[in-house]
Design goal:
single chain; 691 residues; alpha/beta; 7-stranded parallel beta sheet; 45% helix
Length: 691
Amino acid sequence: MYISHAQPHFDVIATSEPTSDTVEVSPSKSFDDDDNLIMHPAKQRSCRSWRFGQCFKSTRYKGLKMAQLLCAVYILLMTFRYYPNGLIDPSAPLGQWRIVDVWNSENTSAGVIQLEGDPFGPKRAVVAKDRISLMCLAISRISAFTMYPCIFLVFMTKCKATINFLMTTPFSLYMVHDQHELHSFCGKFLAIDVWVHTLFHCLRWGLQGNIDLLWTNIAGITGLVALLACVMVCLPMMVQKLMRLMSYEVRKFLHITFFYIFAVALCFHNKTSAWPNGGYNQVILGFCIVYYTLDAAYVMFFMTEMIETTIFNVLPSGVQMTLAVSDHFQKAYAQGGYGYVCLPWVSKNQWHAFSLFEHPSNPNLRQVFMLNVGNWTKEVHAQLQRNTVRPAWIQGPFVSPYNNALAFDNTICVATGIGITPALSVIRAHRDSRRINLIWACRDVAMLEFFMDHLWLNNDGWILIFYTGKEALSPAVENAKLNSNIKLIKSRPDFDMIIPNIIFGIETGKGVPEAAVPSEKLQVRELIAKKVWELEGEGLLEDEIVEELTFLAHEKGFLLSSLVDERAEDRNKNLLQVIKEQFAIYNNSARNGNYIPPELASASQSHQGLHKRHNNNNKLTRYQRSTSMAVQSRPWEKQPAAEDFVSALDKKRVLNTWGVLYCGGSKSVESKLRKISNKYDLELHTETFAW
């Protein structure tokens, strides 16, 4: 698409249907784009409980759980064997096992042992004189060793440069693509496991009269430091009230700083001399600390660049920023991803993550949209009340869960609020090869109008826009004539109904969005072509001509940019030049009486059966499709047979070609989508920066 600066802020898109595609439904509560849906308190507790249970009851991350199981088995075998292969006193008969210092009874009384009787060796606080103490020690050691895989992954999932590289290799076939979700899963496990480990050590020490080991032994001291650091790392990220009380900058600082403290403390928690019966902390934690630091340094020095001149577009609800990134940045990821942005004239120490999407008229430019919600973004919005082109720094691009769109033939992108941005990149990148459907809930009128200008539309996917705000829509939006596959609905989305309806309609062929094609578009193109030659004859300047064409398209219910085909060879041309070249056929052929519009002559994909196929020998023109098919199933309307139909589809051959991608800050929406994903066995990938 091509957008001129002379174009008005919002245009509309025409349809072949004579009536408006804005659907009015019964009034409902406003949908909160970035917070939880308004729920009864009992339902909110149920939702939180479900999410908590999912962390530990789900079948996800089987590889991680298998690694934890192997670690647990290993340390049990190493503990409950007779000394010197294990820790059990060789003089203790079966059934009366105990762990004591066989060389020094005073050490046993103090609750410690020294292996090989070395008086200068490390004192290990592992004495267990009875069955209860042995059980407490077993639980403590199991909890310690099951931490290792999680600690390793907590570090590695944030090694952004490494992940970017691995995602380009065959190793990516075996990787978890939602790295932040895995990071969060491991972090929650550590938050609980650290307390379990500490509790059962303290219980054993207390039963044996050695509780002083908590502040006199190196294992107790470093364990206490690690426990307190873990609290500072996890609570601000897990407790919603704390998240609201603390700014993002404070939470991020606490998260990173105290995790370093946590990791360093564990390095001294035991020594390598305990190997093979422990003593892995220094090796594993030391490696993770060094590797993560090197990865972060690589990102800082080789994946960060300054944008000398930045273009800002200020809206009431936020700021849209356009960045002319380098060739190196573009080659890293051609479409999508996310990056960290720093505006030094706002704060030199704050880097914030934003989804990236390509400029509609120049794919070499990257854009981000900053919603005016946090302290930093509010300050940015305030600073930009005065025009500026001051520089910005950007770090990235990094792979995001939305890059998983490649894995599916049919994708349903779900977005709330500003979460629309990665969906735009997916639509742009894959509209010619995959069927991309979009469900977007938005309550902000200005944001709705702005992004309507940036939708890269096609007729192969449903684009359902749910306006959930209280402010009245402008007449231009309310009465807009939209493409047959684009529906503006004034309600909250019912995901339980819409998602199976989309699958049902497309798999059965009863609800394919390309069944009706906007024929008015052809007439408007012809009008635009004639107008160009008229205006040039009047001697108008180029910008004046583009402005006149923009208003003409607007009067007919179209974006001027949506009337122009996007071609690689036209990227460096101005908008008027592209219009004259592409629309020349309308004038010449129409005058000769033998004009056939390109839309009716060009072929496109046939969408029949289970998959979207590309068979050059079996193509239907858009004209043929529009006359041979009709939309019988509309996804925003109740389809009684949809749920049973989708549930009965072959999960390996059909449903695995479908994927759901979500971007937004609503935990309730994410929970709802996860339930739908589990119900129909659909893959779900989420992208969120609500940290």
